Amino acid sequence: MTIHEHHTKGISLSTITRADERLALVMFSSHIHRPWDAYEEALRLVYTEALLAGAGPYDRASFIDTLSAHGVTLNVHHTNGALTISVSAIDSTVQVALKLFNAIIRTPHFETRELKRIKELVHNRLSLAKEDARACAYTHFSNTLTEAKAPHYLHDLDILRAKVLTITVKDLKKIHEHMLEQSWTIAIAGNGHTATQVQNSIHVLRKTFAYHENEINNIWNTKQISGRKVHLTDIPSKHNIELSVGGSLPLTRGDALFPSFVFGVSVLGLYGGFTGRLMSTVREKEGLTYSIYAQAERSTMTQTGFWRIMTFFNPKDAVKGMAATIREIQRMHEYGITEDELVRFKSILHTRRAMTNDSLQKKIREVHAYMLLGFTKETHGAFNEKLLSVTREEVNDVTHRYVDPYNLVISGAGPVETIRKEFKQFM
Amino acid sequence: MKSKKSVQSTKKVSSLRKIKTIGSITEFSMSHNGLTVLYSERKGSGIVTSNLVYRVGARDEERGETGLAHMLEHMLFKPTTYDMSRGTDSGAMLFERETGITLNANTWKDRTCYYFSYPAEYFERAVQTEAERMRNVVLTDAEFLPERTNVLSEFDMYAGDEEFALSVQMLGVALQSHPYGHETIGYREDIEAYTVEKLRRFYNTYYAPNNAVLVIVGDISERIMREVVLKHFGTIEASETLPLRLTVTEPRQEGERIVTVRRPSEKQMYGLGVIHEGFPSKQWFETMVIFDMLAGGEDSILHRMLVDTGKAIAVHSTLEPTYDRNIGMLFVTLSKKLSHEKAHAEILKKIHALTPKDIAPYLKKTIAKTIAGEIATREHSLGFAQELVEYVSSYSWESFFQSEIILKSITARDVHTRLHKLFSPDYLTIGYFKGTKE
To answer: What's the pLDDT at B3?
Structure first.
């Protein structure tokens, strides 16, 4: 695979090519910088659905029929302030995929009749979301560390449901215009021929919809906390208590200490597999949970973030499970990583990167993700080099500072009532 | 159950005999112990995936021991006698912890498989690890008891999901004789009653080279593959007491079966189950077209009829590639506008009103989606191997490249006939998940 980059005003574009590749993939993102509140959050939930509800010469039915008839998939989602459109086609259907993609960008319909349907659908989904224990635990965790006006702040579900019903066609048109004016971050993957077709299409779109410099404050650093903040949400229909546990990380990805922190938190709980300490102790040795991982999140090149452990426990194991988790946090805080872990995890992280070469889909997701964080191929390469050359002292210094068992946010959701008192006493 | 007769050989001659090549896959057989190897080379990526499939799954479990195949799968990540003699932890876990390779396993109705995906330089280590744990995992209470707690934790993770809870009940009433009638993870009561003796018996019965298929896909030459596989698997003896698989014919159903699950929840869900033919028969693919047509996306019939009108929040289906006949299920998450009983009436009315003309465009779509979907899944060695496993477990790896041909041989009339057979009222299993306030 080869990766080429192209950066101009208003476009960051990476192209991944592999000879004889049949797949053709696009990941298109636009950071929509607008003042954030519950109405804006509701609007974006409706907007992502509305983009697929008819565009160009296609009404909604014919748009979806055309996708299916050609085996093309086109998804729209919104996370952390960025709208992303993902397209997957094969070489023989890429022209159709581009036609549909262009239609969404250029002339989405935003019909009143479709808006009514979408509002009802989103309203119903938000109702069910109240029982999504994992999302609930995450929401309260994240919100504790996030300013209310930041685009990562997640509003109360009942408030969102009410706001969804007030969204208008005019609102949709306005946010779409706004999206078109922003800087676009795009990753393309395929063979040389399909990649060129997609690139040309993107460049024509950018010429059509001129980029305007954004004036809104985009940088929202995470809040600092002191002490332990515990939040428990009762969802009695669930069997397990989902947990998000962690703290503020006042580092951007551009900070010199950031690679060392990522290394340390990988040792603590590298996501996926069984290599992290949390999996090998809390799960394997103590049998307290099926999965427990840790990672650094939210930080970009210009904005700080947090670190988070994600897990779940059966109510009868919840206090023991939390005790084991806090113990591991304490251990990392006080003693850091061992020399053996330093050597092993360099090998582990190196292998993980090499594995993305096996899959074009994995590769495009990796490239798109680091672009959204503000990296280029060069700076991401430098980041990874630094990651694989950290010293034990660097890692232990930064984990001692920020993996702090005394300043933690602990957010749980599930059947918590039976253990609430005991849990809070323990904390 | 009958045991296979053993052929006593006085001389163990290990060789990998080439059997046949279809597409990019070549089948080999190890002469003295019956191990099958399926090999597909992919030059240039530097990555290999190896996936060892044992022909044992939920269908091989006795009553009172449901989920044993899955529990044993967890135990295959514990130390072997080799690890103990080396004074190390489990070879499989050490492999991951030292190198960062991808490893995991999964158990299903007809098979249990273990896979590694790794840079090619680790090929020998991967093969050695699989060979060592085929017969030599040490099963003791010290290793088993904490792992059983993990399996119970996994069970609770699934059991809290409304759809899982409903599907377990529907499975139980739909398949009353066939061993597919319980979920792969088993019943909690059975998991709590496991002993190491039960695990040992299961392990000694089913884990043998003549009950296994080793799938190797990636950037490794045939020469090296042969050398390494022979070196590590060539000395393992075949099992002489491998049981033949039971053939179970489900008794004839005489009338619809209805099951209700009540739990505190906001959710209201309707499930509709039908018995389909085994994979990868033409009839199975006809069922795939039907399920795609009914619930395969926003253009599907039930999505348009129910979700677009606000009567439901979501629709989707499950259809498993199992060797024997099994239950496929449609699920509808209802809104407040539609009751379970009315959902049932409306859905069946719609299904029975469909004509071959209605079906034809959906057949075309399923073909297009399948072709594109296979290209996407098989573009990487892990996806290729995982998809091949499903064909292997149905004793039909040769059909791996046939899905487009099979689908194109199906007509709208075939699908229409299959639809009416499947959804005949007397053969249905119906499930209601009723969320309650308390």
So the answer is: 39
CA distance B160 to chain A (A): 5
The Cα–Cα gap between A339 and B41 comes to 38
The conformation of residue A149, written as its DSSP 8-state character, comes to: T
Q: Which of residues 186-245 of A touch B (CB under 8 A)?
A: 236-240
Q: Is B141 on the interface with A (CB under 8 A)?
A: no
pLDDT per position as a tens digit, B196-246 = 999 999 999 999 999 999 999 999 999 999 999 999 999 999 999 999 998
**Given an 8 Å threshold on Cβ–Cβ distance, is B157 in contact with A240?**
yes
Q: Is B99 on the interface with A (CB under 8 A)?
A: yes
Distance (Å, rounded) from C-alpha A36 to C-alpha A98?
Answer: 32
State the DSSP H helix or E strand holding residue B432, giving kind and residue range, or none if neither. strand B429-436
pLDDT of B247 reads 87
Which residues of chain A have a CB within 8 Å of the CB of B150? 283-284, 287, 289-290
Q: Give the pLDDT of residue A214.
A: 74
- Set of chain B residues whose Cβ sits within 8 Å of the Cβ of A22: 375, 379
Residue-wise pLDDT for B108-126, tens only, equals: 999 999 999 999 999 999 9
Residue B51 CA to residue B399 CA, distance in Å, equals 18
- Written as six digits, the tokens of B296 are 């395969």
Q: Give A41-96 pLDDT, tens digit per residue.
A: 999 999 999 999 999 999 999 999 999 999 999 999 998 889 999 999 999 999 99
Q: By C-alpha distance, which of B166, B298, B264, B67 is closest to A59? A: B298
Which pTM value belongs to this model? 0.95
CB nearest A290 (choices: B157, B361, B364): B157
Q: Which residues of B touch A240 (CB under 8 A)?
A: 153, 156-157, 160
Distance separating alpha carbons of residues A274 and B93, to the nearest angstrom: 7
For the range B224-227, what are the long-range contacts, defined as Cβ-Cβ under 8 Å and sequence gap of 24 or more? B224/B123, B225/B37, B225/B39, B225/B123, B226/B16, B226/B28
Taking the CB of residue A332, how many other CB atoms lie within 10 A of it?
Answer: 25
The token duo for A88 is 């997957």
Which among B146, B156, B369 has the least Cβ separation from residue A287?
Answer: B146
Provide the 3-class DSSP secondary structure of residue A121: helix
- Judged by a CB distance cut-off of 8 A, whether residue B297 touches chain A is yes
Of residues A65, A124, A130, nearest to B335 (C-beta)? A124
Spatial separation of the C-alpha atoms in residues A150 and A144, rounded to whole Å? 12
**B299 in Cβ contact with B369 (< 8 Å):** no
**C-alpha distance from A184 to closest chain B C-alpha (Å):** 26
Looking at CA atoms only, how far is residue A47 from chain B in angstroms?
17
